Amino acid sequence: MAMNTEKNSYTVIFAAIMVVVVGSILAFLATGLKPRIDENERFEKQQNILYAMGVNQNEGDGDVAFVPTTDVEGAFSKYITQQLVWDGTEAVQKENAYLIDVQKALADAKSGKDAELPLLIGEKDGEKYYIIPMYGKGLWDAIWGYISLDENMEVKGVFFDHKGETPGLGSNINQRFFMDDFKGESVLNNGAYEGIAVAKGNNDPLNNDKEDNAVDALAGATITGNGIAAMIKESLKLYKPYLETIRTN
Amino acid sequence: MALLSKKDANLIKDPLTDNNPITIQVLGICSALAITAELKASVVMAISVLFVMGVGNVVISLIRNIIPSKIRIIVQLVVVATLVIVVDQVLKAFAYDLSKTLSVFIGLIITNCIIMGRFEAFALGNGPRRAFLDGIGNALGYGVILVIVGFFRELLGSGTLFGIKVLGDPIAKTGLYAIGYENNGFMIIPPAALIVVGIIIWVQRSRNRALIEEA
């Protein structure tokens, strides 16, 4: 079979067929797997939120250990007592507020449009946790996370994750040695919402100083660290009026 | 009878030694620098490339006679990208945790010049069986260097291997750190990979002088 593969018409037809074949394979796969992927992503969100309020299976110095996916739904409805949306002036109940697209909501709120910012209230051992979602950018791509605060504006826990930070450097923001440092830090400084800086030369590797509004940066990941600090500050700014209503100190 | 003829065995052996894609052909350096700060990332990347290269080489080889030469590079790119996305989607549905680890590498796999290089130089001119062996061989050659670099960078830079503290605890000052040893922070930034790769190239060429190019 001799086919002239150099002809323009052949090239065009080949390209068209290739696009159709590859397109259908990918579309078929994407639709077929979507329900499973969505469910996995929902479980992951629940795991992350619970992690930020300290509901996890961390042991000693070990790795990050979430509530297992098999139990996460039960744990989520047990510990998360209220799901609210904050529109800038008031917080109202909303079912499944945790599934709101945080990136879009934050962008809308920043540009002055009407936005529903999700806000979760958890309760564990009689203590209340106010869990705020965050979204920002690191060095290469998006970073996001959750921060849980108590009425004194002290950080009870955080969770960070990223889409494509450098493996071994910026990607370590989702490791315990980084996230654990935030616990106990206050986001207030003399009454102002200062957030938490990710500082080089902080000279406090064990993070004993909880009053300095800073945690130790990751070596080799300056921009990712700055992204984390900016992300926290940005979220605090948008939720500040709400936080003022619950603040007790 | 041996499983592979001598010629076929060389397809796998050569890239591991005298025709290594990284140290001899100096391809795939970008990902070798970017992701070798820790051993685990190196291994994940090596396995991913092994899969994409093995399957991709076979696919390209099977359709080699019908690819219009004018758009062959685009066709190759489409094959790699499709394979990587398929793997990512399937993992997302059935092994979500693993896919989270892998997602960082997707872009790096697609743009890995070794993959495109082998498609162009080998799969377009050889049958699927040989193309498969060639793909596996080159991916292994790439993976070996990645693992070696990752090993030294993680060990010297963080004092850990696969995240396990093998030299003691740098903060609590145990193990080696008790006698004044310090982690070398330079090792975890990308330029250190260049130096480690450079040393590997030097060692390899001083052992086999035939590899040294004429100036």
UniProtKB/TrEMBL annotation, chain A:
Membrane-crossing residue ranges in chain numbering: 12-33
Residues with the modification FMN phosphoryl threonine, per the entry, are T222
From the Swiss-Prot or TrEMBL record, what is one GO molecular function term?
A: oxidoreductase activity, acting on NAD(P)H, quinone or similar compound as acceptor
Where it sits in the cell: the answer is:
Cell membrane
Q: What is its EC number?
A: 7.2.1.1
One matching Pfam family is FMN_bind
Q: Name one GO cellular component term.
A: plasma membrane
Q: Cite the entry's keywords alphabetically.
A: Cell inner membrane, Cell membrane, Flavoprotein, FMN, Ion transport, Membrane, NAD, Phosphoprotein, Sodium, Sodium transport, Translocase, Transmembrane, Transmembrane helix, Transport, Ubiquinone
- What Gene Ontology terms for biological process does this UniProt record contain? sodium ion transport
Respond yes or no to whether keyword Flavoprotein is given for this record. yes
Cofactor dependence is on: FMN
Entry membrane topology: Single-pass membrane protein
Q: What is its main location?
A: membrane
Function as written in the Swiss-Prot or TrEMBL entry:
NQR complex catalyzes the reduction of ubiquinone-1 to ubiquinol by two successive reactions, coupled with the transport of Na(+) ions from the cytoplasm to the periplasm. NqrA to NqrE are probably involved in the second step, the conversion of ubisemiquinone to ubiquinol.
Subunit structure of this entry? Composed of six subunits; NqrA, NqrB, NqrC, NqrD, NqrE and NqrF.
Q: Which family does it belong to?
A: Belongs to the NqrC family.
Q: Under which name does UniProt file this protein?
A: Na(+)-translocating NADH-quinone reductase subunit C
Automatic annotation (TrEMBL), chain B:
Q: Keyword annotations for this protein?
A: Cell inner membrane, Cell membrane, Ion transport, Membrane, NAD, Sodium, Sodium transport, Translocase, Transmembrane, Transmembrane helix, Transport, Ubiquinone
Pfam family name, one: Rnf-Nqr
Query: Which top-level enzyme class is recorded in the Swiss-Prot or TrEMBL entry?
Result: translocase
InterPro entries, per this entry? NqrD, NqrDE/RnfAE
Q: Where are the transmembrane segments?
A: 43-63, 75-95, 101-119, 131-152, 185-203
Catalyzed reaction equations: a ubiquinone + n Na(+)(in) + NADH + H(+) = a ubiquinol + n Na(+)(out) + NAD(+)
Where it mainly occurs, coarsely classed, is membrane
What's its EC? 7.2.1.1
Q: Name one GO biological process term.
A: sodium ion transport
Q: Which HAMAP family match?
A: NqrD
Instruction: Describe the family membership recorded for this protein in Swiss-Prot or TrEMBL.
Output: Belongs to the NqrDE/RnfAE family.
In UniProt terms, what function does this protein have?
A: NQR complex catalyzes the reduction of ubiquinone-1 to ubiquinol by two successive reactions, coupled with the transport of Na(+) ions from the cytoplasm to the periplasm. NqrA to NqrE are probably involved in the second step, the conversion of ubisemiquinone to ubiquinol.
Instruction: Tell me the subunit arrangement.
Output: Composed of six subunits; NqrA, NqrB, NqrC, NqrD, NqrE and NqrF.
Q: Report the protein name in the record.
A: Na(+)-translocating NADH-quinone reductase subunit D
The species this protein was found in: Flagellimonas marinaquae
The lineage, from the top, is: Bacteria, Pseudomonadati, Bacteroidota, Flavobacteriia, Flavobacteriales
- Gene responsible for this protein: nqrD
